[in-house]
Amino acid sequence: RRALIDLGALGAVMTGTGSAVFGVFDGEETAAQARRRLGKRYRDCFLAKAVPEMEETAYGKEPAETPGGDQ
Predict the structure, then answer these.
(1) d(CA 3, CA 36)
(2) How far is Cα 20 from Cα 53, in angstroms, rounded to an integer?
(3) What is the pLDDT of residues 16-38, one digit of tens each?
(4) pTM above 0.90, yes or no
(5) What angle do CA 46, 49, 16 make, to 5 degrees?
(6) Which of 64, 55, 58, 32 is nearest to 45 (CA)?
(7) Secondary structure (H, E, C), the chain
(8) Is 54:62 a contact under the CB 8 Å cutoff?
(9) What does the angle CA 14 – CA 30 – CA 16 come to, to the nearest 5 degrees?
(10) What integer pLDDT is reported at residue 52 of this predicted model?
(11) Which residues, 6 or more positions from 9, have their beta carbon under 8 angstroms from its beta carbon?
(12) Are 7 and 37 in contact (CB under 8 A)?
């Protein structure tokens, strides 16, 4: 957790059992740099993007509207 913070994560959390740790970054490049650095030390290190929020509609799940109409 400390390593993620030191590498620029806005926050980092460890799962209850400690088997996984994840960090949230404000930019893809900062996250990618952290993944490269941590990947040298830890075998399983992944970079993922957040999934846009979905909302239930009459037609199924669709992306939620964002302020200003951007999606």
Answers:
(1) 12
(2) 23
(3) 888 899 999 999 999 999 999 99
(4) no
(5) 60
(6) 32
(7) CHHHHHCCCCEEEECCCCCCEEEECCCHHHHHHHHHHHHCCCCCCCCCCCCCCEEEECCEEEECCCHHHCC
(8) yes
(9) 5
(10) 76
(11) 23, 24, 25, 34
(12) yes
Cβ atoms 41, 34 nearer than 8 A:
no
Q: Which residue has the tokens 């996984």?
A: 20
Beta bridge partners of 13: 22
Residue 46: what residue type? F
Sequence letter at residue 35? R
Amino acid symbol at 26: D
